[in-house]
Design a protein that fits this description.
The protein has 234 residues and is α/β, with parallel strands linked by helices. It is built from 6 helices and 13 strands.
Amino acid sequence: MPPGHTGQDALKRAAAERAVQFVESGSAIGLGTGSTVRPLLEAIAARLASGALRGLVAVPTSDDTAHRCRALGIPLVTLDEYPELDLAIDGADEVGPRLDLIKGLGGALLREKLVALAARRFIVVADESKRVRRLGTRAPVPVEVIPFGWSSLLPFFEHLGATPALRRAPDGAPLVTDGGHYIVDCRFPRGIRDPAALARALARRPGIVEDGLFLRMADVAVIAGAKGVRLLRR
């Protein structure tokens, strides 16, 4: 087990235990994807089993989360059935000073953004290592693209100041998202000077499905650190 792995898992679990307090009976919620969300799913399932939560339905943001929810007994619905959600909870790869986020290293950024936008409140769960002063200083910006002609986008990403790389599966083939797309991870050596301008540029380019910049979307960040769990509000 890598050094610090157990400690980081404990932080994720502590953040999840605090975040689950936002979940109310009778609500429709969105559930994110990744290692930070997994203890949250377990906490929700435990409360459903004990009767502390009732009448809950959830929209999963990935096939992986859907599979885990079914195994835990969390009732699932679709975003078409519940286009307006009471709450969405997800992790983040970076959390900036104003709760601007980079997400998508788990490969589910498109569905995650759709679910977050459908929710009245968006809660982010993370450990303190994900906090940054400038977005892009640690994590790349994942950009979901259509497979057709994906490589023609590389010069465009480079023009924006990024070092782009196609994300690949363990066997070396392009990683394919649940939506059937590819992901190009765009690293910015000095971070992103103007995330909003970058998001606008990416949104205008044909062939790009969605990007991993979640700007001015999170309402609360639940951050777990060595000194405990604290809430940050936008």
